Amino acid sequence: MQFRMMNGYGYGYSMMGGGHPIIGFIFCILVLIGLVLLIKYLWGGGAKRGNSALEILKKRYASGEIRKEEFEEKKKDLI
User: Fold this and answer.
1) pLDDT number for residue 60
2) 11: in domain
């Protein structure tokens, strides 16, 4: 079995275009999907971590911590 060299480089996969083009295409698609999911996770994470101010206000009103007048006043400020 003989190993041939082409322009000083061996046959096989390389980072400079060697290998099958479909594998490179699939790899690029997977990287793009990964980036989209990472951005989506980081962007949407803030909304999922904490409650909005209006939700907190509603909980305070429901628990009786604040009166209706104070609830309405603060709600106007938020909206």
Assistant:
1) 92
2) no
Question: Within a domain: residue 27?
Answer: yes
Domain residues for the domain of 53 are: 18-78
The per-residue pLDDT for range 27-66, each reduced to its tens digit, is 999 999 999 999 988 887 655 555 688 888 999 999 999 9
Tell me the C-alpha to C-alpha distance, in Å, between residue 31 and each of 34, 37, 46, 64.
5, 10, 24, 51
Structure tokens at 21: 């083009």
Percentages helix, strand, coil for the chain (3-state, rounded to 5) are 65, 5, 30
DSSP SS3 for 8: coil
Query: Token pair for residue 61?
Result: 């009103």
User: Does some domain include residue 52?
Assistant: yes
Q: At what angle do helices 68-78 and 53-62 cross, to 10 degrees?
A: 170
Give a yes or no: residue 28 inside a domain: yes
